[in-house]
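anyone seen this seq b4? input:
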Amino acid sequence: MRFMLMLKGDPPPGAMPPPDLVQAMHEYDVELEKAGVLLAAEGLYDSSQGARVIYAKGARTVVDGPFTEAKELIAGFYLIDVKSPEEAIEWARRCPVDRAIPPGADWEAVVEVRRVADPADIPTINEEQAAQAEKFRMGR
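predicted toks r here
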């Protein structure tokens, strides 16, 4: 089963993570890799460098960042392949996101765990769509 671990938050514009956080996340990456569960991992720039395309009332509107609700934003993600939801949650518990919180700050660190849908899980998908989705997933 594939799961996405979404690291919630939005760093201040232009801020880079402190060295101890970078080291802790690197060590976590290595743990995931050694366990054979890591499929992908990426950090994201702050929302000031992003945009949203909103579709409402028959129109598409582009809204440039930054966005205000930091706890609703994704700062990075891990894509893992594990045997159960419990294993995915255990890996999320081990993620060192707490290192992103400055001492004394009134912030929270959140790792959201979501199962990735496989084409086979969608009853309305046809064989051609399933094959195309698998081809895309495999990077071809």
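The chain has three helices and six strands. The CA atoms of residues 31 and 106 lie 29 Å apart. kinda curious what u guys think
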